[in-house]
Structure formats: C-alpha cells, structure tokens
Amino acid sequence: MKKFISFSSFIAASALSLAFAFSIITVAHVHADTSASQSPTVSCYSWTGASAIGTSTASINDTVGWYAQVINGTTTNNTYTFYWLNNSTGVTDTHHYTQGNDKEFTSFSTAGLKSMYVAAIDTNGKNTGWESCPLVNVLPISISSCAPSPATATVGANVVWNSSVSGGKAPYSYRWYNPATGVVDTHSSINGTFYSNTVSSDSDTVSYNATGTKYMGIDVTSSAGESTGWKWCSSPVTVTANTAQPTVNVYYPTANSTFTVGSPIQLGFSSSNALATFDVQLGGKAYGHDYGNVNAPESGAKLNFTIPSDALPSNYTTLSGYQFEIYYNGSLIAYSPSFTINSSILSQSSSTVPTASCTPSASSITTGSSVTWNGTVSGGTAPYNFYWNNNDSGVTDTHASIGGTTNSESASYASAGSKYMGIAVIDAKGQGSGWKWCSSPVTVTAVTPTNPVTAGPTVTCVVWSDPTVNIGQTAGWAAQVYNGTSSLYYTFYWLNNSTGVTDTHHNTHGNDNDFMSFSTAGSKSMYVAAIDQNGVNTGWKACPSITVTGGQTNTSTNTNTSVSASQTNTSSNTSANTTVTGSSGNTASASAGQTTTVNSSNSSNSSSQNTGSTQTTAVTTPAVTAPTVSCTPSSSSASIGSNVTWNGTVSGGTAPYTFYWSNNATGVTDTHASITGTTDSDATSYSATGSKYMGIAVIDSKGQNTGWKWCSSPVTVATVYTDNFTGAILNAWNSIKSLF
Fold first, then answer.
1. Residue predicted with more confidence, 701 or 566
2. What span, in angstroms and rounded, lies between the C-alpha atoms of 553 and 27?
3. Using CA atoms, how far apart are residues 169 and 141, in angstroms rounded to an integer?
4. Whole-structure pTM over 0.70, yes or no?
C-alpha cells in the first residue's frame, strides 16, 4: 500500500521520525531496538475488516490487514502517530493523529510467510517500541487431487473425473481437456471459501466410444489470475468393450417411403454399443442383397447405400414390402419399416446430344488457395444441369437450370498433388454428355515455412490428441518454450502444412495448444514457432505428424451386379446384366446377349462385351448438394470484455442444420442444433488482447458436412484506457506495437 503526503507534512514527519530515532529507538528493516525506556505498549492482531480475529492465511493479490491498540498510554487529549513496517517489501506507512488504535492493509504478489511490525509515538514523544504482528501465510494455487470414477468402464458408459484445488482466491475457473476427442470443457465461477480454507472441487463427465487407456488434462485459474497450468490427472481410466447384445433403434427410412432402382437410399439407426459391428441387408418379396458390415452412424446421421439394379423383378415397374434387415452375430435383431421401390429408365433422345468440356483458370496453385474450373456445353437443349465432380474430395456439386452454355466451379485443396475435376451435363430433354475430365489437372504445392528471424530460445512440440483420428475429428498439438525468459509473454505461430493456414496466439506464458480437424485422409504435419516481447524467437519447429483415416476400395464379382464407391471398382459378368458406378479405374464386362452399364466421373473406366452384348452410358445425378459455409465478425476490433458477434451463412445441403463454432482463444466449441434457416451467430467476449479467430462447421439433415473453416477475418482485441492523458499515450503505444 502506498501513501502520498505533502512536502510540509513530509518535513514534519521527518523531524518527528528523527526525534523518535535518536531519543528512543532505531528503526531497522527486520528488527528494532526496544531497550530504551517506554511508557505505553502496543498490541497487534490480524484484521479481516469485521473484527480483530483474523486469519493466518491469504492468497496472492488478496487484501490482508492488521489492527494495533495502544495499552497503558495516555488517551486523554493525546493522539498517536503509528508506524507500520512491511518486512517483505521494506515499505513503512505512517498514520498521524489517531486515538490509540489503527489499522493497516496491504497485499502480496508472491507466496510465502509475510511479516509486519508496528510502533506508536504519542504527542509527548513517548513511544511503544516495535511490536511484531501475526505472520500471514500467502498460499499459491495448486491441484490437490484429480482422478476418474470409476477407474474401469465399458464403451459408452459415463466416467466422472473429480478434482479439487487448494490455495488461490475463489471463485475458480476449471478447464478440462479430453485428448480422446480434443474437446476442452470450461466450468467458470466455481466457488470455494478461501478464508475458511475450504477446498474447491469440480467434476467433468464424459463417455468413450473406443477401448483403451484414457487420460484427462486439467487447468485451474483463480479470480486473482493465478493458474496451475495444464496437469494430467493422477491416474487414467481403462475402457473395455461392451460384449452384451446391443439394443438397436431404426429411425430412417420412414414407413411407406418410395425409392428408385439405382438411386441412393439411406439407413439411420442407433445402437447401445458404439463399437458393435452389424450386417445390413436389403430384403423383400423373396429378394435379398447384403451390403456388408457397418457400425451404427453417429446420433441423427445416416448410412448411404444404393438400390441394386436387380432389386425389382423384370416384369414389375413398382413393388412394395422392402425392408432393411440388421443382423448381429448372425441373428436378425432389427429391421426398418417397409418401403416401395420403383423402376427408372434414362433414354437418350435421337436429337443432338450435348457435349461438355472444361479447363482450369491456373495450372498450379499452393495449398489453401482457390482455382476456378470453367465449363462449356455445346448441342442439346437449354436449360442445362451442370455436374462438377472433385476427385480430391469426392464431392459432386450441381448447378441447375443454367440458361447459357457456360458454367464454373471454384475449389481449394488442403494437400499437395495433381488435382482433377470431372464435368457432366444433362439438357432439358434428359440427354447427357457423360462424364469427362477437364482438359488438364492443377498442380498443388504445399506451403513451406521460413524462419522469420534468427533463432534464440528453443520450442518443443508434441501431439496433444490421439495420433490417429478420423476425417472431421479434432486433432491437437502442444508446444513448450525452453531456455527462454519465463517472465516474458510469447506469441505462438502454428502453420498447418496441409492447408497453408497459420494460427496466431498472443500473450502466452511459454506454452500453447492448437486444435484442428481435416477433411481429407493421409499424414498431416504442423509447424510451430514462438516470439517473445523482445523479438527473440525460436524459429520453426516441425511437430510430430498425425494420421487421418478415411476412404475404401470395393471389388465385386457377382451375377446381376451393382457396385458403387469412390475408388476402384471391378465387376465381371457372364450370365446377366452388370452396372458399375465409381470415380476411377472401373471395369465391367458381359457375355453375349447381356447389357453392361458404366456410371462414373472418370474417363479411365472401360467395359467390354462378347459378341451380341450391348452397352449403354448414363449420367448419375446426385440427389443433393453438399453444404458450404462462411462467417464474418460483427466488428474488426473490440476491447477486453466487450461482446463480438460472429455471423455464419450456409448454402447448399438440406435443412435443418447443426452449426459448430470453435473459439480458438478458449478452445471451447459451441453447438447450435436444428437451425431451419441458413444463418446462425455466436457471441463471445475476450479477456486478453490479441488477434482472435473463430472456426465454423455445419452438418445438414442428411449428414453432409462442410468441414471446419476459419471465419473471413480475425478480431483485434485491445485494452482501452479511459484516463485522458494516460489513455492517449498507452493506446497509441498499443497501436504501434500491433504493427510488429
């Protein structure tokens, strides 16, 4: 606590202090000589503000106090000057003209035992000598315990992680990090009464969809700003398989639905065991088709299949009574409501059929940048439907009712390599051009990081999630600065080498985390660098790579065969009709008198027939378009504590949508479900300065997702000073610092 007095008061106080020092007592930093003759005495107590019965403990930056009372002094027409000596800081406070009692308040920025001394002099120059006050123990914040309950659980069962913290100042903010999912849960305003030394506690409940040893990380911050830093809980939980027969609930398709031969069909069902494998078959009217083994989709999602060409007898144009049948370990345990299947024939008109071609706007780009594919159609009858097939993502976009003869499609790529685009056009009479590759591919090169300045301290990087994740699942990395200055703040730069995107996290104390999901499979790499307040940096450090899984290869050799996939398909047939649908390397063959159909987005498919067989080529029209999403902040700048609204817009896909908002400053992901419109927003405020980013992803009602995207620009958060002179200087200085 600092006191300011006038110059005249300072002279008077100095004279009084000098007389006090020479006549009776010499003031020392720690102890005082009390051998001189003393008449009054002084007693000192801890002080809470309500009584003279205080506590012997406190927290960092917490206000503590002492109370002093003169005994055996002269109280009639006599006042005292009290001297308070803070032995931890060496600061002495002087309080004049008090009636025999006084109080002193201060706070401490470091932990440990803190001492205070007090002395009093009356108006006749008599003094008490120095008296030691009760010690105060300033406690740091620390995690007392963190463990799971139970210690062993089955897949899908709830596990409660319990933690308690001691020291620090209530209320507390708990952050729980689940490396199995990459999710960080934040629990704010968790109370604990510090002055009665009550331990604060919190818990986080999770479940796991895979077996293995699972860990939980925890970080606790007090209301005074103290942090424990990230710690692992003392023991993991062991998750084992659930071997009981699962309970299955089929929620799609609905009863009496109608589907078409060769068209997509979806199956939605839930399972009490997330790891269980089921065999799905299509049955009805003495017909059976086995789709093979699958796992239950995520809650509300659906599995995609195709109705085989032989599902409808040759003498029928429509037939009801079909069902999905779900088997577990060879036993039928569930089935869907019945539905109807219709026939479908796409015939070519005798008039001129359309032909399509396309070219890219650039022959080479870098990861994360965009290229435009320009298409042209000739022949046929307007209006046209243009279909664009991205061989890198497997997504087909549809641009319907185009009155002219040109159309374009934009795409960006997260990985390096040669990228192709397929095009197909159907005119107003239903005539198709067939799938064609654009005239040439686009070569995509990865962004290579460069060191910004000469390296000083070093940085290490580890994977902060499972090393193998699925497409769309969150992965994370953690970084730590070594040989740096611990009192300095650092700015961390995270470079995703697969997308070319760089995340920037300001004002961290030597450690940081970054989280991200990927829309494509393969090995994914991350780089990290850190720069302190003085411009000294670590240079770029390569983090361990993670593996993103996804994709499949299908091979079928059957009588009356249909194959649909995104990879290589092979089908041979000697006695019946054959249909092959895929994106590359498809081959179909048939004997005399039979028909072979190749549906694909790749010109590298082939079909061969023996003498007497026939061949047809058809264009498969996708049922829906995948959604795309974008978002912007309501303001490009904000002050600490003020709200910022992030506005998102989705196009394509099928409502309702689920919006996911990922705040990179806190690591928290908000979920807004069942949004029937195409817009959504997320409001947040920030407690620290720097550039703040927001990620967005959308999943539509058919289970199609946009993948994670960053909003178009960050928000710059700065401290706003209200004092006119100081504010003008400091705000200008912050503006200058933001340029570097």
1. 701
2. 87
3. 8
4. no
